[in-house]
Amino acid sequence: MKHCFELPEGMIYLDGNSLGPLPKGVAETVAAMIIEQWGANLIKGWNVDGWMAQPSRVGDMIGRLIGAPQGSVMTGDTLSLKVYQALSAALQMRSDRKVVLSDSGNFPTDLYMAEGLIRHLNHGHELRVVAPEEVADAIDDSVAAVLITQVDYRTGRVHDMDAITAKAHGAGAVMIWDLAHSAGAIPVDIDGSNAEFAVGCTYKYLNGGPGAPAFIYVRSDIVDDIDPALSGWLGHEAPFAFDRDYRPGAGVERMRIGTPPVIQLAALEQAMKLWDQVDMDDLRAASIRLSELFIAEVEKTCPDLTLASPRDPAQRGSQVSFHFENGYAAMQALIARGVIGDFRAPDIMRFGFTPLYLDEGDVTGAAAILAEIMRDRLWDTPQYLARQRVT
Ligand SMILES: *Cc1c(COP(=O)(O)O)cnc(C)c1O
Question: Which of 9, 272, 288, 360 is deepest in the core (most CB within 10 A)?
Fold first, then answer.
């Protein structure tokens, strides 16, 4: 499906795990939306162009990829905010418990948001952070909520969703999964897992574009009991009644906060149409083939790089990471030669394998360029050693 994307000539893009590329048709759709809807219809667009229904309509498109029933996923805001919404609801559901359990492989914003919420609640909650492999054993009946990211953003290690959810429920805890590196990368059956909440972003594997809105899933049998902490007017049962009293909207509508990002949603909605043609099991098999090929090539030619991802592909998401002490400079050298991956502190070179637009030729091509950089120490120049703001 490479022909479905606008990829610059000569670039090998191994960073779809951080920002997906531009799908063909998105630029035209967004331009037409701006001119024909915003430009011509102005405020009528909320009704005639369906802007108000768009956050749930796009939520349903995401739902199909993560095994969520229609009407259980809402889009909007950023993932950091969706983490806050899910966790605040979970803590209210278990108000007699004080522990939020997470792991040290989690993305910092998830932990920061949890800490901020705990500080402001000021009810003696504690964020307990354990090593990823200790999560299951750390779940006990003091835990109110387990908040973890299924696929580790640095190493690609995958948590066992069903087993950890079952463990959490066995101890009476609420389960929140962050699917930032799962949605569009690996098959997910969130409904089958029985977790209460899932959250994720859409600018990574879902190709919604920089700043594309996040999503939140809430299990249907609990959603009507949730009292939203972020009780914005568009999550109200009747926003245009402008009532003085807040009453949460029906179902997952209450996870809305304020005005949706209509232009970003137009881009995301168009990007999501690509997924109609994708079978997630086929995609996963292709991703494993590409990742295995890359690991084999790099291990053959780059002895200074050591694998940071699990060796077993079943334990890995759709990315492969290597440790290298000069990884930042080596990644800069790669980028200068048209191979785009990224660097995560302290020493991780990260490569995303997204079969929608990558093939084996891209993988062997990228590995060959990396081999040359390592063999000839092409990274060892001041230009590549100096760090930029975004790595
Ligand atoms: C990418 C990512 C985020 C980013 O959060 P934003 O609010 O969208 O910037 C959060 N959590 C995880 C696990 C991520 O991988």
Answer: 272
Average pLDDT over residues 242-266: 98
Around Cβ 100, how many Cβ atoms within 10 Å?
27
Cis check: omega of the bond before 346, within 30 degrees of 0? yes
How far is 257 from 242, CA to CA, in rounded Å?
15
**Planar angle of CA 162, 168, 169, nearest 5 degrees:** 90
Using 50, 70 and 90 to split pLDDT, how confident is the model at 127? very high
Closest CA to 181 of 159, 164, 156: 156
C-alpha 201 – ligand 1 centre gap (Å): 7
Q: How would CATH label the architecture of 26-276?
A: 3-Layer(aba) Sandwich (3.40)
- CATH class for the domain made up of 279-385: alpha beta
CATH 3.40.640.10 boundaries in the chain? 26-276
**Cα→Cα distances 92→42, 79, 225, Å:** 40, 20, 10
CA of 374 to the centre of ligand 1 (A): 31
Give the distance from CA 74 to its chain's centroid.
14
140 Cβ neighbours under 8 A, 6+ residues apart: 171
- 343 catalytic, yes or no? no
pLDDT at position 388, please? 84
Q: Tokens standing for 46?
A: 């909320």
Sheet holding 214-218, edge to edge: 73-76, 214-218, 197-200, 174-178, 143-149, 99-103, 126-130
**What is the layout of strands, in order, in the sheet containing 342-344?**
306-307, 319-323, 348-352, 342-344
Mean predicted confidence (pLDDT) in 122-144:
98
Angle (CA) 385-390-391 rounded to 5° is 50
- Plot region of 377 (φ>0 → left; ψ -120 to 50 → alpha; else → beta): left
The ranges of the chain annotated as CATH 3.90.1150.10 are 279-385
Calpha distance 288→294 (Å, rounded): 10
149 lines ligand 1 (CB under 6 A): yes
Query: Is the CB of residue 198 below 6 angstroms from any atom belonging to ligand 1?
Result: no
User: pLDDT by residue (tens digit) across 43-88?
Assistant: 999 999 999 999 999 999 999 999 999 999 999 999 999 999 999 9
Determine the atom of ligand 1 nearest the C-alpha atom of 180: 15
Specify the residue for token string 């799908």: 23
